[in-house]
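User: I'm curious whether this sequence folds into something compact or stays loose and floppy. Could you predict its structure so I can see for myself?
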Amino acid sequence: MQNLKIPFFSSQAMHAAIRQEVLAAMSRVYDSQWYILGEELAQFEQEYSAFSGVAHTVGVGNGLEALTLTLRALNIGPGDEVLVPSNT
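Assistant: Here's the prediction. I'll summarize afterward.
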């Protein structure tokens, strides 16, 4: 049997179309030395709100923060049942 190598994930191919835009944004953040909050986040929140058709967007640092804020906004707390997929 032949040993086939199938690439699982290629972020380079996936993001080639937006590479320069992403690198420019990263450079602006790096140059400003404003890594938390800052103008880039404010701009992203405004653009994402417009894109998704909502009044407010809150950018967070990671998925745990996103889930925590979502659960708190929905008044879900200790003792409440939360179902999640097994592949988290």
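Summary: The mean pLDDT is 91. The helical segments are 11-15, 19-32, 38-52, 63-73.
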